């Protein structure tokens, strides 16, 4: 019984990452070829996912302890899955309807809608159906780049490819409720990783803390990329753990461990199809491959090969389908690429120099493990004390500074628009999971560092490298607009899970130490002390996390936008060519072009009345119906010819995500948006 439950635990918790990876392996080439259709996706994607899950069922070993005869009960798996299901149900009930592009969710939603309906990129401008090459027209908008006679979406295709499945199954609503499902899979995947590294019985606690976390709920309610990236990277860590449970010799016979290592590397690499900044998170993996080579472990080459293949998909997604976006990021991306090349070269050189000696002994000199533990505490102390001695400035974008100035004015803060607030990044983590969790995680990471360097926790080497590196580099420079909950996006893929994981590990370690303390003779006292440690540890993680989440997680952002978008599209004739005459084009152009399926451009001229009249005539000459649109009636009214009627089909008055700078968000803001149109018959 224990063996069956142990196998089911690892299989079920590895399944989300394997299923998403199998789908991306098939769907991405279809998109590149321009043939991503429901039929092609079904014929190729369903078998690919089924084969991936079947392979996992055959290859993934049981949870740790089962092979040694330890009884692994069913309840941790059942509870972890129930937590994931409950999380998904709540997020579906509160899922957002963000379609108007203000920030990333609507950008991803419009990206998803386009490829789900058309199956190809780039997006044609169809300028020949508007006014040709009229110099008064522009075709780009927020998150959509005009390149020649086409438009390219800003972000990478990984998350939209996953959300496309929801659109195929349930239309626009299906697309919008897919992120909650993926977020729930992330909770289950994290529980699986915690069960492997901490112990199966601790998996439900880890999953519950993540599920309660406000940021996990928030990103899972909208079409963000983070839920997909989280499943892939946490799932890859779990698969790598499974691959390394058996020792294999370098150059030995191919077996299950090799296949799992290759799969883990592939899942890691596919993270780049979702988010280009995953490249930074993968750098420790290169060093770990070097350690495996020095240890003559057979998993080294399959892990490296899978990583290269997945990264090949990622760079194709970036430079093939999102090159304008990467060019926009060049100031930060190019140095990262150089650093990555340097890391690869340095690891290769180190492996060559140390090949005869093997893996360096980290338990010599004897003081090194203690120094490693102390270094963890020092780094966390520096991050905690940083706001007292340093204030970070410089967004690198005037628009970001302007927005931060507006939020400061709204909150009654001193006007300091260039401030990035990055020095508060560790406190951000404390907002969302509690400073008590941060302290527990610090103690856990320090003890783990000591044990790893003493070669007592080999299974923790890769997770500690990846999570520790990501925590430090992210907290040093989050590189994101610092209002919340927006900025917490940067933390949810690996940083917040890392703090929860280290905190749960420390609680488990302390509980076991107290339960087996030889200085206490009475077993009942040891049991009571251990139980108290477990209960207190769980409480100090869950209570602050739940308090922060409570205030902001009881609303639906942009609700009513789906119905408003449908009204807007019904108000626009099928043979229309749309001209947006004011700044609303930045937010609405791709919605009108993609969801309503009509050629759309914006007026960029300083003399809109004359140019609008000329463009209207040019549209008429092409046998199309001109439609003028604007976000404000006063911008549209002077341009509407006599006899045309103005209507307001897109009219939404609801709630949206808040923006805070010096405290965690505690409630929604008001959202009002509208688009006026005039059909010029």
Automatic annotation (TrEMBL):
Cell membrane found in the keyword field: no
Recorded superkingdom: Bacteria
Keywords attached to this entry: Membrane, Transmembrane, Transmembrane helix
Residue intervals passing through the bilayer: 12-33, 39-60, 72-94, 228-245, 257-276, 282-298, 303-321, 333-355, 367-385, 426-448, 460-480, 492-511, 532-553
Keyword Membrane found: yes
Protein name: Glycosyltransferase RgtA/B/C/D-like domain-containing protein
Organism: Streptomonospora nanhaiensis
């Amino acid at each position: 019984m224990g063996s069956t439950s142990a196998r089911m635990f690892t299989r079920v918790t590895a399944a989300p990452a394997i299923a998403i990876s199998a789908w991306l392996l098939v769907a991405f080439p279809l998109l590149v070829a321009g043939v991503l259709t429901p039929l092609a996706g079904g014929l190729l994607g369903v078998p690919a996912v089924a084969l991936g899950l079947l392979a996992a069922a055959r290859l993934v070993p049981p949870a740790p302890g089962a092979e040694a005869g330890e009884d692994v009960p069913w309840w941790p798996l059942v509870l972890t899955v129930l937590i994931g299901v409950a999380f998904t149900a709540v997020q579906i009930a509160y899922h957002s309807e963000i379609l108007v592009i203000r920030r990333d969710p609507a950008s991803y939603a419009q990206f998803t809608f386009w490829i789900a309906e058309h199956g190809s990129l780039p997006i044609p401008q169809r300028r020949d159906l508007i006014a040709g090459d009229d110099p008064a027209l522009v075709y780009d908008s927020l998150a959509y780049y005009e390149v020649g006679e086409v438009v390219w979406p800003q972000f990478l295709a990984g998350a939209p490819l996953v959300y496309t499945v929801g659109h195929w199954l349930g239309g626009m609503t299906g697309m919008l409720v897919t992120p909650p499902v993926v977020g729930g899979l992330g909770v289950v995947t994290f529980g699986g990783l915690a069960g492997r590294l901490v112990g199966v019985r601790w998996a439900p606690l880890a999953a519950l803390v993540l599920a309660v976390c406000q940021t996990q709920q928030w990103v899972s309610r909208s079409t963000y990329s983070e839920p997909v990236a989280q499943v892939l990277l946490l799932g890859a860590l779990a698969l790598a753990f499974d691959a390394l449970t058996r020792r294999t010799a370098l150059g030995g016979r191919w077996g299950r461990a090799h296949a799992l290592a290759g799969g883990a590397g592939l899942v890691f690499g596919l993270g780049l199809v979702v988010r280009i900044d995953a490249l930074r998170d993968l750098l420790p993996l290169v060093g770990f491959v070097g350690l495996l080579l020095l240890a003559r472990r057979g998993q080294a080459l399959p892990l490296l090969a899978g990583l290269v293949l997945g990264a090949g998909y990622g760079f194709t997604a970036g430079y093939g389908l999102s090159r304008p976006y990467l060019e926009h990021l060049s100031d930060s991306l190019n140095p990262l690429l150089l650093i990555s090349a340097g890391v690869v070269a340095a690891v290769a050189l180190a492996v060559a120099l140390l090949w005869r000696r093997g893996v360096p002994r980290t338990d010599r000199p004897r003081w090194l493990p203690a120094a490693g533990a102390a270094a963890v505490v020092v780094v966390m102390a520096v991050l905690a004390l940083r706001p007292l001695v340093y204030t970070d400035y410089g967004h690198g974008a005037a628009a970001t500074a302007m927005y931060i100035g507006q939020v400061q004015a709204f909150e009654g803060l001193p006007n300091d628009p260039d401030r990035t607030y990055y020095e508060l990044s560790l406190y951000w983590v404390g907002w969302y999971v509690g400073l008590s969790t941060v302290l527990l995680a610090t103690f856990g990471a320090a003890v783990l560092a000591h044990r790893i360097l003493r070669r007592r926790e080999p299974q923790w080497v890769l997770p500690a490298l990846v999570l520790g590196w990501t925590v430090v580099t992210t907290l040093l420079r989050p590189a994101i607009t610092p209002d919340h909950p927006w900025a917490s996006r940067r933390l949810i893929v690996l940083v917040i899970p890392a703090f929860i994981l280290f905190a749960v590990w420390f609680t488990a370690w302390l509980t076991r130490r107290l339960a087996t303390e030889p200085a206490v003779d009475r077993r009942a006292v040891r049991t009571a002390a251990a139980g108290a440690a477990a209960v207190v540890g769980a409480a100090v993680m869950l209570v602050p996390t739940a308090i922060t989440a409570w205030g902001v997680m009881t609303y639906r952002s942009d609700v009513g936008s789906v119905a408003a978008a449908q009204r807007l599209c019904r108000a626009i004739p099928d043979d229309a060519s749309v001209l947006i005459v004011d700044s609303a084009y930045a937010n609405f152009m791709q919605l009108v072009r993609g969801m309503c399926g009509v050629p759309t451009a914006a007026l960029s001229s300083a003399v809109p009345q004359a140019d609008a009249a000329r463009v209207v005539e040019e549209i008429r000459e092409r046998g199309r119906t001109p439609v003028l649109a604007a976000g404000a009636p006063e911008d549209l009214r002077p341009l509407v010819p006599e006899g045309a009627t103005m209507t307001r089909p897109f009219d939404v008055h609801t709630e949206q995500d808040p923006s805070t700078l010096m405290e965690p968000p505690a409630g929604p803001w008001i959202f009002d948006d509208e688009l006026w149109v005039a059909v010029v018959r």
